[in-house]
Amino acid sequence: MLNAVYRLVEPRRFEVEFNDVELDDEHIIVRPTHLSICNADQRYYQGTRPAEVLAKKLPMALIHEGIGRVVYDSCGEFKPGQMVVMIPNTPFEHDDIVAENYLRSSRFRASGFDGFMQDNVAMRRDRVIALPEGAKPEVAAFIEFTSVSYHAVTRFMRFAHSRRRTIGIWGDGNLAFTVAIILRLRIPDAKLYIFGKHVDKLDNFSFAEETFHINQVPDELVVDHAFECVGSSGAPRAINQIIDHIAPEGTISILGVTEELAPLNTRMILEKGLHVFDSSRSGREDFEATVRMYEEHPEVIRYLDCLIDNVIDVREMSDFVTAFDSDMHKAGGKTIMLWNK
């Protein structure tokens, strides 16, 4: 089966390459329909990753958040035309202790090999999940993104002590928003405090108890646990502010991605006996749990719908640039590509 793959060959330049997709029992052929642009995709597109990383990774098809329609399944597990979620993390071994998204042998689409910017994607059978009927496709397009937050909260539930009266979330962007929604759902009695620097974004957290500008946090404010969802150059300040305002033996969950080393106040981490852990990506179990959450709690989809900033029809290669440039200049939210190639 002839297939077109649209690869980023250097920052801001895409080229098409044709390959042959084998039809076998191990893979399901999926035609993407809705793709969501992630900040990681933007770092490749803009060329802000280190030069040695770009040289190693490119050329590569971007996008690891997406859904599509089944084109071919030799085993009949999925029907032609059925909508499915595509899981980008691809493990090659099982470990009873280490989750699939932390195994060093796992590969991740749009990072270690081609992502979903293709006419058709050959997905390993265990990397596909049926999308519930009636799910809004624009929101379903970034289930992967939501599953990362679900994974982080699941790890928090395992690591954090039982005093969960107040939880602080540092960040006012998409990641902080999804983490807050899932925390509200899974720990309904906890008071959520949001810390950010954009007043207009903080206003979106209507379900939280209180929001604070990071320059106006009361000295006496204390939270039991905290999530860092800032990343980039703002991560060190956010983490150190958390250390200042978290109670002894609290748990700090680090989710933000930064290319820089982050100097931390380790003295106070030691004095308070804090637990610090991080979370990255997600696996099949997190996807399955996220899909169940969408089915059982439709209010979550209504909240997530607020994150959709732009929907761009993609029919030719010039539309790739339009979509990525639009996403680059957006105030917030997610950019969804209607993949009509």
CATH architecture of the largest domain: Alpha-Beta Complex
Could you name the ranges where pLDDT drops below 50 across 5 or more consecutive residues? none
CATH hierarchy class name of the largest domain: Alpha Beta
Return the string of H and E elements.
Answer: EEEHHEEEEEEHHEHEHEEHEHEHHEHE
What class do helices, strands and sheet pairing give?
A: alpha/beta
If you compute it from the alpha carbons, what radius of gyration comes out, rounded to the nearest whole angstrom?
Answer: 20 Å
Tell me, rounded to a whole number, the average pLDDT: 96
Number of helices: 11
List the helices and strands and how they pair.
Elements: E1 2-10, E2 13-20, E3 27-36, H1 39-46, H2 51-57, E4 65-72, E5 83-86, E6 89-90, E7 107-108, E8 121-124, E9 128-130, H3 137-140, H4 143-159, E10 166-170, H5 174-186, E11 191-196, H6 199-202, E12 210-213, E13 225-228, H7 235-245, E14 251-254, H8 266-272, E15 275-278, H9 284-296, H10 298-305, E16 308-314, H11 317-328, E17 334-339
Parallel strand pairs: 10-11, 10-13, 11-12, 13-14, 14-15, 16-17
Antiparallel strand pairs: 1-2, 3-4, 3-8, 3-17, 4-5, 5-9, 6-7
What does this structure look like?
This protein has 341 residues and is an alpha/beta fold. The chain has two domains: 174 residues, Medium-chain alcohol dehydrogenases, catalytic domain (Quinone Oxidoreductase, Chain A, domain 1), CATH 3.90.180.10; 131 residues, NAD(P)-binding Rossmann-like Domain (Rossmann fold, 3-Layer(aba) Sandwich), CATH 3.40.50. It is 30% helix and 26% strand. The chain is built from eleven helices and 17 strands. The strands form four sheets. Strands 3, 4, 5, 8, 9, 16 and 17 form a seven-stranded mixed beta sheet that branches. Strands 12-11-10-13-14-15 form a six-stranded parallel beta sheet, sandwiched between helices. Helix 4 packs across helix 9 and helix 9 packs across helix 10. The longest helix has 17 residues. It is globular. The protein starts with a strand and ends with a strand.
